Amino acid sequence: MKTLELINVNKTFYTELGALDVLDNISFDVNEGEIVAIVGPSGSGKSTLLNIISKLLKPTSGEVIVEGDIGYMFQHDHLFNWRTVWKNILIGLEIKKDKDEKKRERVKELLTKYELIDFINNYPQELSGGMRQRIALIRTLATSPNILLLDEPFSALDYQTRINVSNDIYQIIKDQKVSTLLVTHDISEAIGMADRVIVLSHRPAKLKKIIEIKIDSATTPLEKRKSQEFAQYFDVIWGLLNEQ
To answer: Residue ranges of the domains in the chain?
Structure first.
């Protein structure tokens, strides 16, 4: 079942200097429970795509079909320093005036499973960057979205923390079976996290190729990085990104 489908999506921004074409006829889908990564050169319109999917922007033409609700996790965690971890996590449910106790119990189960339950009365500034990102993801999942949009979610973290957090977040996403679209500039991250990788061209972004990642011997992003197939996928994607 398709959770998300883009059909011939185009985006042009109009400024005082004229028209700026950003997206050129983009079509792809995300299946239920699948993680799809988008990579492309800087300024190729990756974040613009997420903003169109989340309805923060309208496409100039084309169609976006979303089955259910969207959860959007940005590059920075955007946790409120004056609210405790628990109150940060519940903010989406508060906004929706959703008092479903089952959703709160589910959040507590996630916090317990990923060893964060002891920090629910702490404030964000008391946590490490990796913990903040895990909390931000659980906050996004609290409203039970059908599809999760991740915009460079690990880019503010140091390299070691980034790998550890990507492992944890991958596991949370797969455990919850939530369809996910990940935007990243990191090829290794895309291969490690994704079931498929979409490669975009320079602006205006065209869809160059969709690569299915099959590494049967690995079950986590870190294990994928250690596999023989990893380097082959990396070389293919690197080559596509550097084609003129």
So the answer is: 79-145
